[in-house]
Fold this sequence. Notes:
The chain folds into three domains: about 10-225, 3-Layer(aba) Sandwich (Rossmann fold); about 255-330, Tyrosyl-Transfer RNA Synthetase (Orthogonal Bundle), CATH 1.10.240; about 340-415, Roll (Structural Genomics Hypothetical 15.5 Kd Protein In mrcA-pckA Intergenic Region, Chain A). It contains 19 helices and 15 strands. It has helices spanning about 10-15, 25-35, 50-65, 95-115, 130-135, 140-145, 150-155, 160-165, 170-175, 175-190, 205-220, 255-265, 270-275, 280-290, 295-310, 315-330, 345, 355-360, 365-375; strands at about 20, 40-45, 70-75, 125-130, 195-200, 225, 240, 245, 340, 350, 380, 385, 390, 400-405, 410-415. The longest helix has 18 residues, at about 95-115. One of its GO terms (cellular component) is cytosol.
Amino acid sequence: MxxxxxxxxxxxxxxxGFIADCTDYQALDDALNAGMVTAYIGYDATAKSxxxxxxxxxxxxxxxxxxxxxxITLMGGGTTKVGDPSFRADERPLLTPAQIDDNIAGMQRVxxxxxxxxxxxxxxxxxxxxxxxxxxxYLEFLRDIGRHFSVNRMLSFESVKSRLDREQSLSFLxxxxxxxxxxxxxxxxxxxxxxxxxxGSDQWGNIVNGIDLTRRVLDHExxxxxxxxxxxxxxxxxxxxxxxxxxxxxEMLSPYEYWQFWRNSTDADVGRFLKIFTELSVDECxxxxxxxxxxxxxxxxxxxxxxxxxxxxxQAAAAAEATAREVFEKGGVGDDLPTLELxxxxxGDGISVAQLIVRTGLAKTGKEAKRLxxxxxxxxxxxxxxxxxxxxxxxxxxxxxxxxAGKKRHALVKLAG
Length: 417
């Protein structure tokens, strides 16, 4: 992109690597430079927590507010009942209203770590599209909104086209999703003067639909901005770890495990991740990312501390770093490691170490745990573990036992009580 933005927000996110595409750079930059702009990102409530894959866009909302504008976090209480088909191979499982409300409550806790919903002048807004979607009259909606959508054009969007090209079924229910998302943008523009929708690059078609609909129905100019699909330097999708999704709620992933995720970044990703997931200056991010040898590990600790502080607070970040130093440098147990507590009844006459490796999340299946042990990748209390059939009884677990998978993943098992 050769455009040189005048607004602080656009200059910041361009320099830090947040921009994939924009519907009108010049007009959006002018609007941002002229006064406070309200912008939104939508989040369907498909899980009880956001994960690291959402974090780039959450950070963009944070920068929006820090540069004087108003972010809206739009919860998809209505659209979750349909499910976004974008780039999916199959239809999402349908959730009950109670499940959706429960998921929204979990996700809202994460947003409050990054956004200020009580800030004087430009408070963040938490909205739910069920407020307007739940009460739509179907015939009126078809007549007033549906007539503005060309099925031919909808079929040409890459998110839909890729599904049809693979001859995978796309239900009429899912096909309506992009109409509902377009309607959201129009409603937010009408109700709150929202000028901008942001999202991942897979949302481009949905965003453009909303811009077109708003122009046709309200005759208002609004804009779209997308972030790139973020992958690690080795080509993996951002937000996945050996144990699955890297959740942002501490009930689903401990602050220590979250800290470890960032500490385990590959050398080539450190500079880029510092720019996107921390608020350190760009010059400092470049300096840290260029470090070589063992010094890059110091940069990774800074990345882990900064990212963990934003989500869980400085105290949690300091505790995670202290535990890591205890575990890695001193060979200790560490107070903050993920811990599995078992009752004497659960242990019974004994429980196999392979089963404990699965129960602690260090392996997904017994087969994977046994392979880890056979490949000399497992340790118990820092000693090599070679016997997958080793049984531990209540007496053995009276003091905590440390299990390790490789050099970087550890957990404790102890007797409850």
